[in-house]
Amino acid sequence: MVTLKSAWKEISRKIIDKRRFETRDIVKRLKVITGHDLIMKNYPVRTPRVAFNPSIHLFGDKLRVYARVIMGYYTYASAVAEFELGLEELGSPERREYEAEITVIPDTKYDLWGVEDPRVYEIDGKLFMTYCGRTVNYFNVEVKSERTLPVTAVYKNGEWKKIAVFRMPEEIRTFVESDKNAFLVKGKRLMLYHRLHMLNDKFYLAVCEIPQSVLESEALREVEIGENLTVMESAPFEEKIGWATPPVKVNDEFLVLIHGVDKELQAYRVFAVLMDDEGRFTAVTPFYILEPREIYEKYGDRPFVVFPCGIQKLGDKLLISYGGADTTVVIGEIELETLMNILEDNRVY
Question: How would residue 55 be classed by pLDDT, with cut points 50, 70 and 90?
Fold first, then answer.
């Protein structure tokens, strides 16, 4: 009898068999924005020191950017700042200033030391954001577990309202060093996609079912995560992998970007997978499709990083947003046909 776990394990094995340590960068860089390009409307410091790891969402001909910003380096505490740019600006090398507003700040015990790496996505016509919260114990040397946790907020009445923080069952929590790279996906069931880092220094790309009632929460509450499925393991040449962007629908499947960190240079690179409506991987790019190649991706607060958090389908192209070297906001473009041809040639299911 084939169980769900054994089926996932077989799919994961097929994906690893296809992957190789190679990059064919197919991302066209359209726009680079720094913290110095942002003018804060609601904070006494005029500009952030850095802005990076952004998510995006399309509103007509405007692209709203949700960037992680650092206002000072003492604790590197993050918040989320929002700003907009017109689609006609993409591809223009001209630098300009953007009015930005801090909209999600550290203000609970689940995110006191930082609101990091937002993923913004739509479910049932509502806009949600899931981010990595640096918990109150982030700097506490006596507490080694749950340094970070996934927190979800919903956009309601013109503001973000925090509604859920996700935690493993109580008997397991002391073994969880951090939980991040998370977002919710509603298919046949509501699922949490997240990346666990355990105290044994192992990383798990996981999914688990979440009660539908989470989407209707009126106040921040703890949601205990049920049974997790480990859906993919790192390739032999990688130290770890993690979810990058929430899925975008392409034909009858869903496309997701995943980041990988290699063992030698510890550089962040990106590959893509397709999923069916059950959440099973159906195809993979055998090589990375994005890697640090520009100076603003190789040099910054964390060298050699491309870290996508946002994706939007725009006609026959994909717009992606990512952080360059923990220092810049980058908007890139992928020819959808090019990417889909690679995936079609590398199906696993």
Answer: very high
Q: Which two tokens stand for residue 152?
A: 């979800």
Query: Whole-model pTM?
Result: 0.96
Q: Write the single-letter amino acid at 71.
A: M
One DSSP character per residue, 325-343 reads TTTEEEEEEEEHHHHHHHH
**Total residue count of the chain as it appears in this document:** 349
Give the distance, in angstroms, between the CA of residue 230 and the centroid of all CA atoms in the same chain.
18
Whose structure tokens read 């473009």? 333
Compute the distance between CA of residue 340 and CA of residue 114 in angstroms, rounded to an integer.
Answer: 36
Distances (CA, A) of 32 to 28, 105, 194, 236, 273: 12, 24, 28, 33, 26
Cα separation, 298 vs 239, in Å, equals: 19
Quote the CA–CA distance of 66 and 102 in Å, as a whole number.
9
CA distances from 119 to 53, 80, 151 (A): 9, 11, 11
DSSP, collapsed to helix, strand or coil, labels residue 4 as helix
| Strand pairing class (268-275; 248-250) | unpaired
Question: Where would I find the beta strands (DSSP E) of 37-97?
Answer: 38-40, 50-59, 62-70, 78-86
**Domains of the chain (ranges plus CATH)?**
4-344 (2.115.10.20)
DSSP three-state, residue 290: strand
- 86: number of Cβ within 10 Å: 11
For the stretch 114-134, pLDDT in tens is: 999 999 999 999 999 999 999
**Contact yes or no for 113/135 (Cβ under 8 A):** yes
The distance of Cα 39 from the centroid of its chain, to the nearest Å, equals: 25
Task: Report the distance separating Cα 191 and Cα 208, nearest Å.
Answer: 5
Going by C-alpha positions, the residue among 106, 70, 30 that lies closest to residue 327 is 70
What residue type is assigned to position 83 of the chain? F
Question: With 60 as the cut, is the pLDDT of residue 322 above it?
Answer: yes
**In sequence order, what E strands does 114-202 have?**
114-123, 126-134, 148-156, 159-167, 176-186, 190-198
